[in-house]
Amino acid sequence: MNQNARSARSLLLAVAALAAALPAAGRAAYPDRPITMIVPFAAGGPTDVVARIVADHMSRTLGQQIVVENVAGAGGTTGSLRAAQAAPDGYTIEMGHMGTHGAAPAAYPELKYDPRKDFAPIGLASGTPIVIVARKDFPAKDLKEFVAYLKANSEKLNEAHAGTGSVSFTTCALLNSLVGAKPTRVAYRGTGPALNDLVAGQVDYMCDQIVNLVPQIQAGTIKAYAVALPARSPALPDVPTTKEAGLPEFQVSAWNAIFAPKGTPPEIVKRLNVALVKAIADENTRKRILDLGGDLSNEAARSPEGLQKLVENEVARWNRVLRSTGAGKQGG
């Protein structure tokens, strides 16, 4: 290559480098406008509450408001699909949970997204312990008696849940499988109506997130048998763990985590993760979540890599549980 050719090549390379640098230099630093956080459930539920607590602190760290948008329907899968299909620019994220990103593929065989492949995981926000509860006049006085009664009378009993794929649906499917029970499973349009009928004695029992149940348990309008945690929850210190109460194999926790659409740039994922980690480290934010009964012990899943592993494990777990029990929704 002669001197002129080398000079021309060097000039072309310099121009190409400048052209590549100019758009980057012209772009405003992320984020330069508000961020939408999709919550795939109605306002006021546990996922919505956790989302708003975390978004409040993350907004201050990021310097832009995170606006919560509730997109309910189909056990949370409607909002999750919208999040998966959003532009991967960091301005649409989702507060998903164990149902939308763990149980949904088994509960909805025609699901139009894959929680393992169609999202960029940001990090785990909170775990939510599951409590086994029954109507206040249910005859069993403790969990051992409850399990024995359930085994002997399950075909006469009604179990309430918040709809196919919901946390109450999946966790009680696991409980029923473990004890060999086949109750009538009564579906409701959300936890609120299911819990109302439990309080009224119209149904016999359910499994649900502690966040939904603490006021009713404390008021004595429903009976709590056990919380599925390794240690007792500070929110319900008088309620034994499933291990203490004689059903150690029932270890299950719901969870909430933040996801972005697949293809979101790694630097944006990192920025969002840093904001989330700072939020969970904040004393006031932690207190607000813990006061609800939330569990913040799973630090490993607070990273994108740890959350990806959690999702993969949960999809496999709930596929086994729901397929083996026949609890998955057949068809559309």
TrEMBL record:
Residues 1-28 form the signal peptide. The keyword Signal applies. Keywords: Signal. InterPro entries: BUG, Bug_dom1. Belongs to the UPF0065 (bug) family. PANTHER family: BLR1237 PROTEIN, TRICARBOXYLATE-BINDING PROTEIN. This is Tripartite tricarboxylate transporter substrate binding protein BugD. It comes from Anaeromyxobacter oryzae.
